[in-house]
Amino acid sequence: MFGYIKPEKPELRVREYEEYGGIYCTLCRRLGKDYGLAARLVLNYDCTFYAILAFAVSEGPSIKFHEGRCVANPLKKCIFCSDDSREFLLSSALTVILAYYKLRDDIADSGFLRKAACCLLYPPFYFRHRNAAKKYPELEKIVAESMEAQKTAEKDKSPKIDSCAEPTAKMLGKILEWTVCGELESGTPKARIANEFGYYLGRWVYLMDAADDIEKDIAQKSFNPFAEKFHLTAYSEQEAIGKAKNYANQVMNGTLSQLCAVADLMECSRFGPIVHNVVFMGLPLIQKEKLFTKENGNVRPI
User: Fold this and answer.
1) 98, 108, 144, 248: least surrounded by Cβ within 10 Å?
2) How would you write 15-53 as a 3-class SS string?
């Protein structure tokens, strides 16, 4: 995941905003308990949304929040809830597992300075990842297989955008289905909806990351499916890059429409308004900002 799955905060009610912040801060605290202080550095919006989804589609009592002190800055007050639930334990492990594979990917593909920084972070995260993988081998297996499939897809002589997005899409689909239903309920309507939701969300995340990184990837001569399709290089004009971004926008709009359709089928016992805010408002706005902010200035509505 890449940090694109955010809510449109001004559209959240006060209670919903506090609940979202409470999940974020509680996940931060859980990360520190399970994997050490350094693990809190990889906390992100994507895994926060995963935690919210896990709560939303599972049965259970309402979550009680309380005020406390920020674990990173004791002078700051935060909202917390109990952090010993399965949802937080899974979210904490998934955050570390994904961060580990992202670190490996950056070491393989980044420039010298970033690669050097990632190499310094690798040893401590190797052991944190091993701990998370031991606790949840199912999550580790899904993510590891996805990373291998991603490498294979991008090494194709003529990689297709759909083929490149497929591993991430399938990964999130499998993760969400397993989180919601486990292995015993696979194939049920609830499991299929969870899988479809994760699939289209994962597809959108991959496409968004690729579109956002077009200029950086062509400058560093790194792989990018949109750059490959439009034969972009470091010498390409902005008009050509703009065409690639417009095409990416169209592809992502199609994916978002399918994600929204599945979201309407999901039965959320908790945090339903937050889930809908992210899907119907947050993702489209992030997409617009990342693709067209430079050309059109501030795109946020007044």
Assistant:
1) 108
2) HHHHHHHHHHHHHHHHHHHHHCHHHHHHCCHHHHHHHHH
Nearest to 124 by CA among 152, 146, 151, 99: 99
- pLDDT for residue 301 is more than 50: no
Beta-bridge mates of residue 77: 69
Instruction: Tokens for 196, please give them.
Output: 């479809």
Beta bridge partner(s), residue 67: 79
Radius of gyration of the chain (CA): 19
Distance CA 5, CA 184 (A): 29
pLDDT at 96: 96
Best CA proximity match to 178, nearest among 167, 166, 187: 187
3-state SS class at 143 = helix
Long-range own/partner contacts, residues 295-302 (CB < 8 A, 24 or more apart): 295/242
Q: Which two tokens stand for residue 21?
A: 């912040």
Question: pLDDT tens for residues 246-294?
Answer: 999 999 999 999 999 999 999 998 999 999 999 999 999 999 999 987 5
Q: Where are the beta strands (DSSP E) in the chain?
A: 66-69, 77-80
Could you tell me where the beta strands, DSSP code E, fall in 101-146?
A: none
